[in-house]
Write a structure and sequence with these properties.
The chain has 147 residues and is an alpha+beta fold. Helix content is 32%, strand content 23%. The model has no long low-confidence stretch (mean pLDDT 89).
Length: 147
């Protein structure tokens, strides 16, 4: 018996059948989870940091090595000129239109931000933002095929 006979070999996945809105929704939920952790840290008075991989060159050997570093998360919330906290949702680094062309949610006080993000998570899970996600996904430039 050959070694390959022990493996389960299947055909390649047809990526054209994958729903891009479902993929974007999944990524949005992941990012909202991180934004929620950052908002909870802000309310607690700490900073939420994420771990990322970065290539660095070893100065002695000249060899490139992957290192894990901690860095602050790019937050989707900020304080406006009036002192209110605002929040927006992003898909592919584009702001998601929530009502017409409006993209910002006025949170008000810092302590309400985690609750607002949890509400947004529930809305995404319920499919309430699928049309807006579809609009942003369709506006993307097409990805060229590599093979």
């Amino acid at each position: 018996m050959s070694a390959l006979n022990k493996l389960k070999i299947v055909a390649d996945i047809d990526n054209s059948k994958i729903d891009p809105v479902a993929v974007a929704r999944g990524r949005l939920l992941g990012h909202l989870g991180e934004q929620l952790k950052a908002a909870e840290a802000m309310v607690d008075g700490t900073e939420y940091r994420v771990k990322r991989q970065r290539w660095e060159t070893n100065e002695e050997t000249g060899e490139k090595v992957r290192k894990e570093i901690e860095m602050p998360l790019r937050k989707w919330y900020w304080r406006d000129a009036l002192g209110q906290v605002r929040f927006c949702l992003k898909v592919g680094n584009k702001r998601l239109p929530l009502k017409g062309e409006d993209t910002n949610i006025i949170v008000g006080e810092d302590t309400k931000l985690p609750e607002i993000i949890q509400t947004c998570i529930k809305a995404v899970e319920a499919g309430e933002l699928d049309q807006a996600i579809d609009q942003v996904v369709k506006a993307r430039k097409p990805i060229s095929k590599k093979h």
